[in-house]
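Standup notes, structure subgroup. Blocker cleared on the pyridoxal-5'-phosphate input:
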Amino acid sequence: MDHAATTYTKPEVFAAMVPYFSQYFGNPSSLYRFAMEPKKAVEEARKRVAAAIGASPDEIYFTAGGTESDNWALKGVAYANRKRGRHIVTSSIEHHAVLHTASYLEKQGFEVTYLPVDRYGRVDPGDVADAITDRTVLVSVMAANNEIGTLQPIAEIGRVCRDAGVYFHTDAVQAIGAVPIDVDAMQVDLLSLSAHKFYGPKGIGALYIRNGTRIDSLIHGGGQERRRRAGTENLPGIVGLGKAIELVTADIPGHNRRIAAMRDRLLAGILERIPDTCLNGHPTERLPNNINVGFRSVKAESLLLLLDAHGICASAGSACSSGSSEPSHVLTAIGLSPAIAYGSLRLTLGDANIEDDVDYVLEVLPEAIERLRSVSPLTPPCSPGEEAP
Ligand SMILES: *Cc1c(COP(=O)(O)O)cnc(C)c1O
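Run returned:
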C-alpha cells in the first residue's frame, strides 16, 4: 500500500536488463564493435522514453533519477539564464527535490516565489501569471503530488508560461503511467521522470529538455549524453527504464482501471467504517492509486507501526520525510490543522495489489484506529523503553 514510495521491478523489465550486465556490457562510448549493441540499446531506450511523452529522442537525457532531474532542471536553467533574470516560481507543495533545490538557489542569490494552493492542493494558473515578472526565467509545478495525489492543471500553466516567454518545468515522477503526458500539448519545456515509480529499477531517470532550452550542465566530466550529462551510462538501468515506460504507457486507462476500482472501494470502506475521517486532496482530480486520509485524534506514526505489525506497508506524508516530526508541508499548505495533519495516512495501490488486500486493510485499519483513539487524546506519549500501548 505504498507504491508512491517505490514499486517492484516487473519481471519483463528485469529480464530485459539482464543481458546488459555481463553479456553486452561494453561502454556505449567505446568505438569497437563490442560497444555497438550497448549503444544501440541506449538509443532504443531513449526512443521509448521520448515516445511515451510526445518528445523527440534528442530531447531525452538519462539521469540518476527524479531527484537529479529536478536539481538539473532548476539549477541548470537558473544558472544559464541568470543574466536575463534571477527569479523562479514554484509551488509550496513540490517534492523536496524541487523545494530544497529552490532554497539552495535562494542562498545563491536567486529569488523564489512559492505559490499557495487551494484546499485540494491545486495551483491556480492565474496565480502563476500574476507571479511572473520580467526577471522570471523558470516556473516549476509538479504534474501530480506524491502525498495527496492532486493533479495540477499543467496545460493551463504551460500556456501561461509560453505566453510570458518563461521556461516551464514539471516534475512528472508520479504522473508517468497514471495520466497521459504530452510535452507539446502541455507546453512543457522540461520534465522529470524516474523509473522506480513505474515498475522500473531504482537509480535511473530522465530529464526531458525541449530543443532550444538554455540550460547548464549539472554533472561535469566526459562527453556522454551529447555533452550535457557526464558519466558512463547506467546501461542496464537505461534499458530497464525504456522497457518500463513502454509497458506502463502502452495502455494507461487499462493499467489504471483495476487499481482505481480497488482504490475507490478501499476509500469508500474507510470513510464508511471509520468516523471522524476526511479525504485529503482533490476528490476527482487525483492519481488513480492514491488515498490520503486524515483521522482525528490519531498519530500517524503510531498507526504506521500498528499497520506494519499486521504486514501493511503504508506511509504518513511522504517516505522521504518520514523520521521527521514536522507535519507534512503539503498537508500544511492545503490548510489542514496540525491535529489532522499529524493523523494523516497515505495508501497508494499498485499492480501487485489484489482485492484481498483491500479487504484486509478494511479489516485491520478500523480496529487500529479504534485502538489508538481509545488511548490517544488523554494519554501522554509513552516514555522511551516503555512498551507502546
Ligand atoms: C520519488 C519522487 C521524486 C524523487 O525521485 P527519485 O528517483 O527517488 O530520486 C521526485 N519527485 C516526486 C514527485 C517523487 O514522487
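Discussed briefly. Confidence is low (pLDDT under 50) at residues 378-389.
Next: hand off to the docking folks.
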